[in-house]
Design brief:
Strands 1, 2, 3, 4, 9, 10 and 11 form a seven-stranded antiparallel β-sheet that branches. Strand 5 and strand 6 form a beta hairpin. The chain is 20% helix and 32% strand. It folds into two domains: 41 residues; 124 residues, Rieske Iron-sulfur Protein (3-layer Sandwich), CATH 2.102.10.10. It is an alpha+beta fold. The structure holds FE2/S2 (inorganic) cluster.
């Protein structure tokens, strides 16, 4: 934008502001399409090997572990077992970040939650939406154990429905004390 498109205070005109907003919307829309295509591509990939299930059983309740690079999932140790959450915000698909120092939104631990940097949606460690404009909870990635190895299948996403407290949980007893 040239200097003569700004007013005497160095501010852009309303028309230019709207034009920029429109351009920003186009860029953001294009990013969303790109992310959606990326998800489609990801869905064509197979299950992700996460490692020996014993290693996950012994994690303290409340621990959040990112999946292997590119897997787009978090594994959460909850009281009843393990839960794998998609890192894709159900809003526009932006990657949701772990915020281990933030106040907790659940009773699993005093600190830690997930945060969507695009629109500031907040999710607890169960992936439940606690604040912000995202349309629903984080999607759940299906987990299974085969011969002692934990696998996640990012192609098999579960969309949680209200009040469903057990969806997608892989039951695990607590480690023997
Ligand atoms: S993309 Fe996460 S709330 Fe909009």
């Amino acid at each position: 934008m040239s200097a003569d498109e700004k007013n005497e205070f160095g501010q852009i005109s309303r028309r230019d502001f709207l034009r920029l907003g429109w351009a920003n919307g186009v860029v953001r829309g294009a990013e969303a399409v790109e992310r959606a295509l990326g998800q489609t591509k990801k869905k064509a990939e197979g299950p992700v090997r996460l490692g020996p299930v014993e290693r996950f059983r012994s994690l303290p309740v409340g621990t959040v572990q990112p999946g292997p690079p590119g897997s787009r999932l978090y594994v959460v140790r909850i009281e009843k077992g393990l839960l794998a959450l998609s890192t894709r915000c159900p809003g526009d698909g932006y990657p949701v970040a772990r915020r281990p120092q933030d106040p907790s939104e659940d009773s699993l631990a005093p600190h830690g939650r997930f945060y969507c940097p695009a629109d500031a949606s907040i999710f607890d460690r169960h992936g439940r939406l606690r604040a912000g404009p995202a349309p629903r909870d984080l999607d759940i990635v299906t987990l299974r154990v085969n011969e002692g190895i934990l696998w996640a299948d990012p192609a098999a996403l579960l969309v949680r429905t209200d009040g469903d407290e057990t969806a997608g949980i892989l039951p695990l007893e607590s480690p023997a004390k």
